[in-house]
Specification:
By secondary structure, the protein is an alpha+beta fold. It is built from 3 helices and 5 strands. It has one domain: Nuclear Transport Factor 2, Chain: A, CATH 3.10.450.50.
Length: 128
C-alpha cells in the first residue's frame, strides 16, 4: 500500500512515453522483460508477445493509438488507467489495469469499448 503513489507515477510515465508515443523506446523502463502476464486473450504473455501484437496491428494498417488519458487510479500495486483513442479504426475507451512489482509492470488486464457517435448517445454525460 505504501507504494501506491510510486506505482501510479510509473504507470503515468508508461502512458505518456509509450501509449501516447512520446518516447516508445523507453518501454523497457516500464514493462518487465522477464515477467509479463497478459490477460487479453488476443495477446500472448511475455514482453515479446506484446510487441508482436502491436506490430501486427500496425502492419495491418490499424495501429492502436491513445489520444487522451482521463483518470489514473491506484491502490497498492494495482493501477487503473481510463483513456480514449483509436482501435480497429474506431473511437474507443481503453480501461487498462496494471499490476506493478519491483518498479515494473508485470501484469495487464484491459477492456476496450467503442464510443458511439454523440448523436447516438442516450444521455448527455459522455463516456468520460
Amino acid at each position: 500500500m505504501e507504494k501506491t503513489e510510486e506505482n501510479k507515477k510509473l504507470v503515468e510515465g508508461f502512458v505518456n512515453d509509450v501509449l501516447f508515443g512520446k518516447n516508445p523506446g523507453k518501454i523497457t523502463d516500464y514493462i518487465s522483460t522477464e515477467t509479463y502476464h497478459q490477460h487479453n486473450p488476443h495477446v500472448a504473455d511475455g514482453f515479446d508477445g506484446l510487441g508482436k501484437a502491436l506490430q501486427e496491428l500496425t502492419d495491418a494498417g490499424m495501429p492502436m493509438t491513445y489520444a487522451n488519458n482521463y483518470l489514473i487510479l491506484g491502490q497498492g500495486n494495482f493501477v487503473l488507467t481510463v483513456s480514449e483513442g483509436i482501435f480497429m479504426k474506431k473511437n474507443v475507451a481503453f480501461y487498462d489495469l496494471f499490476r506493478v512489482e519491483n518498479v515494473k509492470i508485470v501484469e495487464h488486464w484491459d477492456t476496450i469499448e467503442e464510443i458511439p457517435a454523440k448523436e447516438e448517445w442516450k444521455n448527455n454525460n459522455g463516456k468520460f
